[in-house]
Amino acid sequence: MTFKKSITALLAAIFMVGGAVAITTSLAGTAHAQASDAKQVVDQAKADGVIGESITGYLSAVSEPLPQDIEDAMNEINIGRKTVFTQKARQQNVQTEVIAQLTGEKLVANAPSGQKVRGADGVWISK
Description:
By secondary structure, the chain is α+β, with helices and mostly antiparallel strands.
């Protein structure tokens, strides 16, 4: 397995469980710090019920407007997820939305008690 495929597989595994990228190589130091910061902001916002997991596979705001730091962190995580979903979809020869929705179903199902989740009906509920 090539280094690129190994990293892709690692990223896919990390994002499939709702995490953020945490690569610690000399070239990825800045990306690691940014992703780590975004994950911390997102984790706190999820615990506070400000954002939540959606059946679409992406984080969403429970109510608008979001503070800029939370919106930026949420967008950073969602961009990373889309990258992984796209790569996995290409590997499996399916549409990106299929991978995103399958992941979203898992993220919603596995969300901790007390966190907000949004199902196919678009309604936010507390787990």
